[in-house]
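Morning. Coffee machine broken again, so started the prediction first thing and wrote up yesterday's gels while waiting. Chain of 116 residues, entered below exactly as on the submission form.
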Amino acid sequence: MTQRIRSKLSDFFSDELGVVEGTLVIIPLVILFLSIIQIADAVIQHNDLANQVQGDVSRVALYGSQAPFSGATRQALPGGGAIIIGHRSERITPISPLLLGNPNISATSIAVDENH
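Came back before lunch.
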Protein backbone atom coordinates (compact mmCIF):
# COMPACT_ATOMS: atom_id res chain seq x y z
CA MET A 1 0.00 0.00 0.00
CA THR A 2 2.69 2.53 0.97
CA GLN A 3 4.76 1.52 -2.05
CA ARG A 4 1.83 2.28 -4.33
CA ILE A 5 1.19 5.70 -2.67
CA ARG A 6 4.89 6.50 -2.83
CA SER A 7 4.91 5.55 -6.53
CA LYS A 8 1.89 7.76 -7.29
CA LEU A 9 3.39 10.70 -5.40
CA SER A 10 6.68 10.27 -7.22
CA ASP A 11 4.88 10.19 -10.59
CA PHE A 12 2.87 13.27 -9.62
CA PHE A 13 5.90 15.34 -8.63
CA SER A 14 8.13 14.17 -11.47
CA ASP A 15 5.61 15.23 -14.12
CA GLU A 16 6.76 18.63 -15.43
CA LEU A 17 3.82 19.42 -17.69
CA GLY A 18 2.62 22.98 -17.17
CA VAL A 19 5.93 24.43 -15.96
CA VAL A 20 6.35 26.63 -19.03
CA GLU A 21 2.73 27.78 -18.97
CA GLY A 22 2.99 28.58 -15.28
CA THR A 23 6.10 30.63 -15.85
CA LEU A 24 4.50 32.51 -18.74
CA VAL A 25 1.58 33.43 -16.49
CA ILE A 26 3.44 34.24 -13.27
CA ILE A 27 5.92 36.75 -14.75
CA PRO A 28 3.28 39.16 -16.13
CA LEU A 29 1.25 38.77 -12.93
CA VAL A 30 4.23 39.77 -10.80
CA ILE A 31 4.90 42.79 -13.03
CA LEU A 32 1.22 43.78 -12.86
CA PHE A 33 1.20 43.40 -9.07
CA LEU A 34 4.35 45.52 -8.68
CA SER A 35 2.95 48.17 -11.02
CA ILE A 36 -0.26 48.44 -9.01
CA ILE A 37 1.75 48.77 -5.81
CA GLN A 38 3.91 51.46 -7.51
CA ILE A 39 0.84 53.49 -8.49
CA ALA A 40 -0.64 53.24 -4.99
CA ASP A 41 2.69 54.21 -3.43
CA ALA A 42 3.04 57.22 -5.74
CA VAL A 43 -0.46 58.44 -4.84
CA ILE A 44 0.25 58.07 -1.13
CA GLN A 45 3.61 59.86 -1.46
CA HIS A 46 2.00 62.71 -3.42
CA ASN A 47 -0.78 63.17 -0.85
CA ASP A 48 1.73 63.11 1.99
CA LEU A 49 3.93 65.68 0.26
CA ALA A 50 0.94 67.93 -0.46
CA ASN A 51 -0.12 67.77 3.20
CA GLN A 52 3.42 68.60 4.38
CA VAL A 53 3.75 71.58 2.03
CA GLN A 54 0.30 72.92 2.92
CA GLY A 55 1.04 72.62 6.62
CA ASP A 56 4.39 74.40 6.25
CA VAL A 57 2.90 77.21 4.16
CA SER A 58 0.01 77.65 6.60
CA ARG A 59 2.49 77.78 9.50
CA VAL A 60 4.45 80.51 7.71
CA ALA A 61 1.23 82.47 7.10
CA LEU A 62 0.00 82.13 10.69
CA TYR A 63 3.21 82.65 12.62
CA GLY A 64 5.35 84.57 10.14
CA SER A 65 8.19 82.13 10.65
CA GLN A 66 10.19 80.64 7.78
CA ALA A 67 12.17 78.30 10.02
CA PRO A 68 10.56 74.96 9.16
CA PHE A 69 10.06 75.71 5.46
CA SER A 70 12.52 77.79 3.48
CA GLY A 71 10.86 77.22 0.09
CA ALA A 72 8.06 79.73 0.64
CA THR A 73 7.82 82.87 -1.48
CA ARG A 74 5.73 85.87 -0.54
CA GLN A 75 3.69 87.83 -3.10
CA ALA A 76 2.27 91.15 -1.88
CA LEU A 77 -1.40 91.86 -2.53
CA PRO A 78 -2.56 95.34 -3.66
CA GLY A 79 -5.02 95.81 -0.79
CA GLY A 80 -2.61 94.61 1.88
CA GLY A 81 -1.54 91.20 3.01
CA ALA A 82 0.36 88.64 1.03
CA ILE A 83 0.00 85.30 -0.67
CA ILE A 84 2.54 82.71 0.41
CA ILE A 85 3.39 80.08 -2.19
CA GLY A 86 5.32 76.94 -1.30
CA HIS A 87 6.67 74.31 -3.65
CA ARG A 88 8.52 71.08 -3.01
CA SER A 89 9.61 68.10 -5.15
CA GLU A 90 10.66 64.60 -4.15
CA ARG A 91 11.87 61.54 -6.00
CA ILE A 92 9.64 58.46 -6.14
CA THR A 93 11.22 55.22 -5.00
CA PRO A 94 10.88 52.73 -7.88
CA ILE A 95 9.23 49.42 -7.05
CA SER A 96 8.13 48.24 -10.48
CA PRO A 97 10.54 47.50 -13.34
CA LEU A 98 8.23 49.48 -15.61
CA LEU A 99 9.06 52.78 -13.89
CA LEU A 100 11.81 54.26 -16.03
CA GLY A 101 13.83 57.44 -15.76
CA ASN A 102 13.93 59.70 -12.74
CA PRO A 103 10.32 60.02 -11.57
CA ASN A 104 9.53 62.98 -9.34
CA ILE A 105 6.41 64.22 -7.63
CA SER A 106 5.83 67.84 -6.75
CA ALA A 107 3.31 69.76 -4.70
CA THR A 108 2.49 73.46 -4.62
CA SER A 109 0.39 75.07 -1.89
CA ILE A 110 -0.73 78.59 -1.11
CA ALA A 111 -1.91 80.45 1.96
CA VAL A 112 -3.05 84.04 2.51
CA ASP A 113 -1.33 86.17 5.15
CA GLU A 114 -3.74 88.99 6.00
CA ASN A 115 -1.51 90.54 8.66
CA HIS A 116 1.43 91.42 6.43
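Residues 19-63 form the longest helix (45 residues). Going to sketch it on the whiteboard this afternoon.
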